[in-house]
């Protein structure tokens, strides 16, 4: 649920509606008169008249009563504010005048809290009238007035309204989130309960939009609890609806039958509470969501449209989309009319989120009843709508988090195009599907590496194929659900590119997104036991994810570059098996990449033509942290392998301040043998733990500090626990320490998916550097280390968790070229002779002036 317009009657309502409904029918305002007589200076007494008018639809009588009281008590500004509320329902021009009078009355009385509340209410009213500039000015004045008067609760209120106003202006999430956190620091734990609820709802919506569902759910639960304690039915309904929308998000992301039942129950609970509270907007929102889950129940659609039309354009658009989906199979013309009306409502709303949802729904409907060209055009329009949302976010976390919630148009468009390619064999569909998927992957990292230049366009399929060596294949996964609430959601696919073309493989039901999110953690748990029991599950995953594709690879392919998706970022591919064979590490050199576009960028990145290594090992940490004695011998071995000019520092000297001050240009390798922390809840606080060796340094080399290092073209080896693991963000990949080193300019990073034993890390890296020093590529040296550990009989936990990402062709500068094996020379010579003979034959047989018209091969 996007943050909708929040009426101040909810924010400051006293929960008296039910009591008022039971009062004497001859004078429904009698209770309000009594309240005012008892407490004429309280907001609750004036607000009562508005509440009765709202529940009984007695706007004219409420206006008359309040007007009379204002004349009798001109020194009571709350009456003027309540009068402005009532006039909103009668005359917009008169309401603006009355709001100005209320603000002036509070200002003249020197009543800061009342002035702030009146300015916030006035700003909200101005926003509904599209007077956004003046609304912003009123909120700025409200913040300054509260600050000057040191009214902290009023300041928090103004900050929340300021954040909501910015959201309505589509300015991105960063600044509203900053304001919301500032308000939270004021209000909790001892602030006004009503304002706390306002702040909790704002934060929950923001965190949902940023792709933080667990945090958002916690906020909504706190809001529901606090609202019940204070008798705020509307607030209870908002919290329940927010929780229902989070369940819908999860159902779209990874459909499960149990998830559908939970979502239905939660949304029905929210609808019942919204009806009890008498809130038409919340009722319409709940029915719009129920219509997605129960598309055949027309009642929800009809009720939603009757509540939403002419009042809530975003909800009107949502319900019309569901109606078009229902009409598509039997009334194509009616579906087209519903689509047109839905689009107009989304445009009127001015809400980029509503526009993105509309285009996604239209795209899927267009794929159902065509034509093909229009479906493609609508798919690109849906993607442009998401891009517009993404471009609003000014900082990395906001871009990555928001983008992770809006991947459905990319997945669905790619899936539709791949299905079309399988049906028709038209390579144009394959090219566009590949481009769409690439444009989705690691966008924030791509933008960061391209700065300050414009981001590079996604790599084309043909460019990828031409850049692959004969012994290389790039395997690109798409792990999308087969269905979501809008229909076909893209499904799981594997694209395998070699120099000879690209093959497309739909993945079986056994490896759906939901099943993989269970199977991958299970495999990691089995590997951790170090008893070999992971073999059967490794075979199941290997066969279903890779079996058919690898069986059809050209025989000369021995190197795999894998571009994972979703939970596959955490899968140790080297440990997977095919049928009853050994682990894949025995057959292939395996490296990882965030996207084909980034892989190609890393491959052509300029190298530092310097050999030495900078090594920090076994840093001195605060008391209680385990020392790493094997890390010291590992560090010495690395420095010795990389030769003259290498620097190795231990203990207190292996410090954060030293690394940040160091000129890194003389070093081709950075090797860190240290503890690390991967924080999945707050990825930006993940850190390599070094010595606190300077004032102001805490020894935690965090993600943002890593990204400011200058590692252009170097290799980074992280002999640290879970340095390649972390929170998996849809589209972006793993927000890991390895990613931070790529942001700093590294061309290749070697990290780990799970905690490392000190001696296992030492043994692995000694083998790796032996082969690297012999002139082998990083990929070959990495593979050799895995195979030697395999032959040593150690369990997969000791070697399969290491991951090489980036350019596997990276070589240690100055290392000798690998020797040519004895059989290679005659083989090459024979090949040259055969080629020469073939050329002679072609010259004799081909007519002069005729050119070959054979198209490049692309297999389906």
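Sequence proposed for the structure above (860 residues):
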């Amino acid at each position: 649920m996007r943050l909708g317009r929040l009426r101040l009657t909810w924010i400051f309502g006293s929960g008296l509606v039910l009591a008022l409904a039971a009062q004497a029918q001859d004078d429904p305002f009698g209770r309000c008169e009594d309240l005012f007589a008892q407490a004429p200076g309280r907001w609750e007494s004036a607000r009562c008249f508005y509440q009765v008018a709202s529940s009984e639809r007695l706007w004219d009588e409420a206006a008359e009563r309040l007007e009379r009281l204002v004349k009798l008590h001109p020194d009571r500004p709350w009456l003027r504010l309540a009068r402005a509320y009532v006039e909103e329902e009668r005359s917009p021009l008169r309401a603006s005048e009355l709001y100005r009078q209320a603000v002036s009355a509070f200002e003249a009385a020197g009543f800061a809290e009342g002035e702030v509340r009146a300015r916030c209410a006035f700003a909200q009213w101005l926003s509904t009238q599209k007077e956004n500039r003046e609304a912003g000015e009123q909120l700025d004045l409200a913040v300054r007035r509260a600050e000057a008067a040191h009214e902290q609760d009023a300041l928090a209120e103004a900050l929340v309204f300021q954040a909501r106003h910015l959201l309505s202006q589509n300015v991105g999430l960063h600044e509203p989130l900053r304001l919301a956190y500032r308000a939270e620091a004021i209000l909790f734990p001892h602030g006004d309960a009503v304002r706390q609820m306002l702040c909790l709802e704002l934060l929950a919506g923001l965190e949902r939009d940023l792709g933080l569902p667990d945090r958002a759910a916690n906020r909504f639960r706190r809001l529901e609890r606090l609202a019940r304690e204070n008798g705020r039915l509307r607030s209870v309904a908002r919290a329940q609806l927010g929780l229902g929308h989070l369940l819908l998000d999860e159902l779209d992301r990874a459909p499960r039958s149990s998830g559908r039942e939970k979502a239905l129950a939660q949304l029905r609970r929210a609808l019942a509470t919204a009806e009890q509270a008498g809130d038409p907007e919340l009722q319409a929102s709940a029915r719009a969501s129920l219509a997605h889950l129960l598309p055949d129940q027309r009642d929800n659609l009809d009720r939603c449209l009757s509540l939403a039309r002419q009042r809530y354009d975003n909800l009107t658009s949502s319900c019309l989309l569901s109606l078009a989906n229902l009409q598509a199979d039997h009334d194509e013309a009616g579906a087209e009319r519903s689509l047109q009306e839905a689009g107009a409502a989304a445009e009127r709303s001015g809400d980029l989120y509503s526009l993105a949802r509309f285009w996604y729904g239209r795209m899927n409907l267009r794929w159902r009843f065509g034509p093909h060209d229009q479906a493609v055009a609508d798919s690109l329009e849906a993607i442009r709508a998401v891009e517009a949302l993404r471009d609003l976010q000014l900082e990395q976390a906001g871009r990555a988090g928001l983008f992770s919630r809006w991947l459905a148009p990319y997945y669905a468009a790619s899936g539709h195009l791949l299905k079309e390619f399988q049906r028709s064999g038209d390579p144009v569909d394959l090219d566009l599907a590949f481009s769409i998927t690439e444009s989705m992957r690691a966008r924030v990292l791509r933008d960061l590496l391209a700065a300050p230049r414009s981001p590079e366009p996604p790599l084309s399929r043909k460019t990828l194929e031409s850049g692959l060596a004969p012994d290389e294949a790039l395997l690109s996964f798409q792990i999308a659900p087969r269905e979501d609430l809008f229909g076909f959601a893209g499904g799981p696919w594997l694209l395998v590119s070699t120099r000879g073309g690209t093959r497309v493989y739909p993945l079986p039901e056994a490896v759906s997104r939901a099943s993989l999110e269970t199977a991958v953690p299970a495999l990691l748990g089995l590997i951790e036991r170090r008893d070999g029991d992971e073999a059967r599950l490794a075979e199941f995953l290997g066969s279903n994810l890779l079996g058919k594709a690898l069986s059809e690879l050209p025989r000369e392919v021995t190197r795999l570059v894998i571009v994972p998706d979703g939970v596959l970022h955490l899968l140790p591919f080297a440990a997977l098996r095919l049928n009853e064979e050994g682990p894949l590490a025995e057959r292939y050199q395996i490296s990882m990449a965030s996207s084909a576009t980034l892989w190609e960028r890393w491959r052509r990145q300029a190298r530092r033509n310097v050999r030495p290594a900078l090594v920090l090992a076994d840093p001195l940490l605060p008391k209680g942290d385990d020392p790493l004695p094997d890390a010291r011998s590992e560090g010495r071995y690395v420095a010795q392998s990389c030769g003259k000019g290498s620097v190795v520092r231990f203990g207190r000297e292996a410090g954060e301040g030293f690394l940040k001050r160091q000129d890194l240009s003389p070093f081709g390798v950075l090797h860190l043998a240290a503890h690390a922390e991967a924080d999945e809840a707050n990825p930006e606080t993940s850190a390599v733990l070094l010595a606190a060796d300077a004032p102001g340094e805490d020894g935690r080399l965090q993600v943002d500090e890593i990204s400011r290092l200058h590692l252009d073209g170097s290799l980074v080896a992280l002999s640290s626990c879970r340095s390649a693991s972390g929170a998996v963000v849809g589209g972006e990949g793993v927000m890991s320490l390895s990613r931070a080193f790529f942001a700093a300019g590294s061309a290749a990073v070697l990290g780990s998916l799970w905690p490392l034993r000190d001696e296992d890390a030492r043994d692995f890296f000694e083998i790796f550097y032996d082969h690297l020093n012999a002139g082998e590529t990083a990929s070959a040296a990495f593979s050799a280390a895995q195979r030697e550990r395999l032959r040593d009989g150690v369990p997969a936990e000791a070697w399969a968790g290491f991951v090489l990402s980036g350019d596997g062709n990276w070589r240690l500068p100055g290392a000798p070229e690998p020797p040519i094996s004895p059989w290679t020379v005659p083989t090459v010579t024979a090949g040259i002779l055969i080629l020469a003979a073939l050329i002679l034959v072609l010259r004799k047989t081909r007519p002069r002036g005729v050119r070959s018209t054979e198209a490049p091969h692309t297999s389906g």
